[in-house]
Amino acid sequence: MLPKNYFILLFIGLLLLATPFESFFTIQNPGWHTTIPATSYLEVLVFLYVLIITFIYWRINSEKINIKLFFFHFLLCIPIVIYARFNYLLRSLFSNYTNDLLVLMKYLTLIASISITLFLIGQIFFIIQLKKIKKR
After folding, report:
1. Most buried of the four, 23, 28, 30, 36, by CB within 10 Å?
2. What confidence tens digit (pLDDT) does each residue in 17-54 have?
């Protein structure tokens, strides 16, 4: 049997990883033509969504949680958090290995597509979990 707060602690760890420390609060070219990086919006959206999920798991009684569905949901949420949080690092890493902009965009689109697809599959597990808990 897992400790009562185990589920909450895992998502709090994911929430800390998703916390946008610097990039959302960094404004490029301050002044009349202020630009906020587009990746910052993704970071904030993922942060808010993980915050909501953490709150929902906090409200649910831990005895009602199906451990397999929880871990599938948790593991499938990790790629979107890593992609949103370290997007700039991924772009700079791939740009070091290719000079062709189209190839770079192809790799970044592939990574984004895979992480969003895994995230959506994880949300299906989350909805199944909530429906099973509601039936009980």
Report:
1. 23
2. 877 765 545 555 556 665 656 666 788 888 889 889 98
